[in-house]
């Protein structure tokens, strides 16, 4: 097995690293997070027009580059190194795959080329603090988070031949600035309860959006209030959103794992450079054996997380159907034993991605914490960048974790702690 990257993948990483090095330094990063949008529109335009990043994993038939989840994950590893704030995760990872999988042909034709070009930004709005559960990362994706026919969440009802939404979503990535909202809402009442996805323009009548104060300023979030808002159903009513959300959860976990590895690697690099310069007792602190041992442990943890993240990115790369459409999103949840082995590999819930995400977030937390420690007094100051990496680790755990729940749910999905008798009964 050849685990090395292809020349094209190496070129993606190199070009993106050079662009971010020149356009997203510490000063530019702080200026970007203080803008109303929470990111630099000029940088987003450069990422979209020069590198085609939003359409990297979209089919060529819809204006995308036609690459796989692996290339998208490698690109996000570089954005993670610089903590570049951008709508990439919300647009290209959370929203575009759902539109590709569930959208009707007119919807895909109208939206995907604009998403691929970066002209349109989008985000997924999931009610409550339930994004990780909705993506089947930390719990069973049963749809209870959408309201379950009771008060709360976002409710969808038919009106005048269309659909109208009412409710509130508190934690939406780029929810305050995205031009298109993909809202998960409950429909059908208690008797015919189901979860559907709806397209809502960000400036639609009845939509009230407010930027939230977040622990990680490089990952801006917004609160969205939907006050009897007219919405367009994504696909048709027969398209159950839950399996598609679970499949997107695997892609999201793989991409986030690579992003966290990039951030951890950068935090470690900065620490290594600093301990070579900082002196105590007349010698660099990096020459002390205790410091070497601690940083060596961090290095091993980061490299192990990188291996897990790369494997998860490969595992999340689905087979492609006609026109390059992601087939795993359509097949996820299927149980037929007549499918080819490669197809079955992509239909079941894959624990590799959540486990890789847990390992990568843990590596980032360790690398950033050790970085703050070894930077001494300056590492605790607001002016230094060390705290930004620590906040990224903590913020991602709050939004997509925590680590122990990612591992626990992966163990349950793999039936790790079931006895042989329990497995026989289940089968």
TrEMBL record:
Keyword entries, A-Z: FAD, Flavoprotein, Oxidoreductase
One Pfam family linked to the record: Acyl-CoA_dh_1
Residue ranges annotated for the Acyl-CoA dehydrogenase/oxidase C-terminal domain, each copy included: 254-410
Ranges where the Acyl-CoA dehydrogenase/oxidase N-terminal domain occurs: 6-118
Molecular function terms from GO: acyl-CoA dehydrogenase activity; flavin adenine dinucleotide binding
InterPro entries according to UniProt: Acyl-CoA_Oxase/DH_mid-dom_sf (IPR046373), AcylCo_DH-like_C (IPR036250), AcylCo_DH/oxidase_C (IPR009075), AcylCoA_DH/ox_N (IPR013786), AcylCoA_DH/ox_N_sf (IPR037069), AcylCoA_DH/oxidase_NM_dom_sf (IPR009100)
Cofactor(s) annotated in UniProt: FAD
Record-stated family: Belongs to the acyl-CoA dehydrogenase family.
Protein name: Acyl-CoA dehydrogenase
Annotated organism of origin: Streptomyces caeruleatus
